[in-house]
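Final report, results section. Input specification for complex C-07:
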Amino acid sequence: MSTATDAAAARPAVDVRVSGTGFFAGGLAALLLVMIGAPLAMVVLMSLRTGFPGEGGPLTLVNFAAVYSNPGTYKVLANTMLFATGTVLVTLVFAVPLVWLLMRTDLPLKGTIYVLMTVGILIPVFLRTIAWILLLSPRIGLVNQWARQLFGLEQPLLSLYNIPGMAFIQGVSFVPSAFFMLAAAYRTMDPALEEAAYTSGVSKLQTFLRINVPITLPAIAGVMVYLFMTAIAVFEVPAIIGFPARILVLSALIFTSTNPPTGLPNYGQAGAYGAIMLAAGLILAYFYTRLVRHGKKYTVITGRGYRPREIALGSWKWPALAFVFVYLAMEVFIPFLVLLWASLLPHLQLPSAEAVAQMTFDNYTHMFDHVGALPFINTAILMFVVPTATMVLSVLVSWVVVRTNVSFRGALDTLAFVPHAIPGILLAVGLAYLGLAYRSYFPVYGTILIIAIAHTINWIAYGTRTTNGVMIQVHRELEEAGKVSGASTPTVLGRIVLPLIAAGIFNSWIWISMLSYREVTMALALGTRKNLVISTIVWQFWGNGWVPQVAALGVILVAFAVVVVGGLKLGFSRLGEWHS
Amino acid sequence: MRSIRILLLLVFIVLGGSGAFAAPIDDLVAAAKKENGFEFYAPSTLTPLGAQALNAAFNRKYGLNVKLQYNPSGNMTRDIGKIVGLSASGTPPEWDLMVVTDAHHATLWLRKLHQTFDYKSIGVDPKAIQYDNGTVNFANQFVLPAYNKQLVNAKDAPKSWDDLLNPKWKGKLGVSTATHHLGRLAAGAWGEEKTTQFVQALTKQELMLGRLGEIYQRLLLGEIVVAVSLSDSELKAEANRKAPVVFAEAVSPLIAPAYHAGVPKNAAHPKTGHLFAAYLTTQEAQKIWEKYAGQSSALIPGTSAYKYVQGKKVVYMSQDQADTVDRLSREYGKILGLSGL
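Structure output:
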């Protein structure tokens, strides 16, 4: 009797809980819809208007007519496609062998290589590009100078100022991202096929090319589409390498439309260019989603706790290490050395005895005279607020998507992925337009909050992919046990689910924090004197011709980030040990 | 009658000496004291130390304790565009006083975006007051082609603007986004047709493009050997004084953009802005500006700039050329490939 009574009493409670979850999920979906939809709506609106934000006026198609009737637009589109394709190819040439070597073989010094790859991420792409100019510029690049001396060449051996040069620099900078995206697929790959190949006498290289690569092709294809989407949106390399040589890509065109080198901003044309980018992004997002689903059908990844055997490299160990070293030299050592060198000089110059005699620490000692504390404070705010907001939203979205039976959970998941189809520059321009045109409703223009909002929206797709993945791995039994014990849904989420997925969340938190720290495109598009961050200061210094100061700032930042990230990682691993 | 005149003169002297006729400046000082600080946008070549020195001297002169917040210019064109954009949306400008070139202030003047003030009433030389009381001209830049003397012998350096079209410079020239330099030639010495032809011919020289600071850096590194036009702001900045970049001094005419200080409309602290704009014309401020930023006014006899222009053919920009310079700067930006498509 008492059981029946309890059950009867429990039924309405269940109903209330279900409707509460639905209400919560609906609120979350509405929040995301506003966050993502508002800047997008602004992009569409600005493309249909002339003049400045807030001026109003009738809707018109003149911006589209101006953009699409200009043959130059199609050349820019072709440049963008070539640049993005080249970037992806360069990334894969380095990332796939690297991930195989580090995940599947007994390559020595793996721990050190991991640390160095993380350091590489911390050197802003923008600073690395300056280093590459010093190496590969046709006239002054050290590589070209040496080639002239050694081979007596009259023409430069290599030049950066073309699409392959741009794609090379951008591609190398994407390697760590691609590496971490592919790592899981390679780490958990079933070794049975590899072992069968070795038993049949197939070489390691052939096995890599004919077994490992085809098996992980869906994962690689997914990463390719992801990187392609990112490559069409990046701005730094096109600005520093492409623009001086008149090689325009779509992102540079949108940026120069809103921040013109001559004349006044043209938001309407930025919107019209943005429409192409948005369409491309949405199409690519569709293919990406399909590829990821398709990849799951062919998965060879085994269950948790699986530990594949490492392949002995034998005499291939040294060539493999040499390959890794070449990559790390390009990604970390050379850029950092160039930064260090430039930071110690009164003005930028190539290595010489005269330059050595002029070395000074002035650029370090006077750093705060040039910068002040505000950009550091703002950057610290971004590095904390953006990953925290992103991960909180991601956990809530993933909880609804993975753990509830809410009818629109699939739509919510798709909505959370949409920001990846929106290039950052477009998102920022849309938010800037929103902040200027509707400042009484959205009074955040010029504050650090608007950059934090842009970053949060931009990385929520990444955050939810991570939290979806880790949440799926936590068995429902634990939550059910909690609920049976009388814990409320928020308590179960906070005290059972969150601690179990904390490691995954923390890793993503750090990664997003680093991305926010080095992001420049959105920060520039939304920048004012009050929300200066370090990345925009770096851009400003370069524009002012203060390269030695930029270099000193770069060295300080890398050192700072290494200490902070290293400390956090160490602290967390100890915490993890204590918990376990 | 004569005694009445003498009496009036005495009254005038006494009242004048006691400050009764110094009301405009006193009012401005009192208002600046209330505002207690302002946002100062100025060229990056001034440096934070230069801005601090100006701030300290300004406070000493007027018995103030206002805090000058220095905002080094990253890109004058972009920031003027920002003022225009903010104004359209009804948002106040970020800066209370802007020191940019006369060509950049022209963009604001054409759109009536200056907070005007009767600068003459506080003793500013009328010759220095421009754009219908919108700005104060207090210093001059000088612009010429510049070269890296480690890579080009002085005897081989360009001797005229047209020398830049010599095929020997193909692939070795850089041009900056400061297309108003060329717009000034068009509005003044050369006329529009000749200048436009010159700009079109320049495009065949495989130019490297960039902002002024970037072009300077690329010249310093040797990526280019000659900059089509560079201002002395880059050459005279303290950090660059030992660098191997010099003007092609034989080239004529010399372009002389002026630095104007002006308060944008709806600025939060306009009184301090007006007072500081006037202060920049004082000898004391001129010395500080020249020490840090490297420029002085070519209009004030005895200054370095005044001495430098003697015997030279100089292109100054006047208010009536504002529209032409504004239009041609954009057009040349397009021709050179600096403004997107």
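The longest strand of chain B covers residues 135-140. Chain B touches chain A through 61 residues (CB under 8 Å). This concludes the modelling results for the funded period.
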